[in-house]
Amino acid sequence: MDFQRVDVVYALLFDTNTNKILMVFNRNGTWSLPGGAVEAGETLREATVREVKEETGYDIKVGNIVALNEAFIDKNHIYFITFHGQITKRPEEIPHEENIIKVKWVSLEEADRLMPYHPEGISKLLNESGANYTFQKE
Question: What are the residue boundaries of the Nudix hydrolase domain, all occurrences included (predicted)?
Answer without folding.
Answer: 4-128
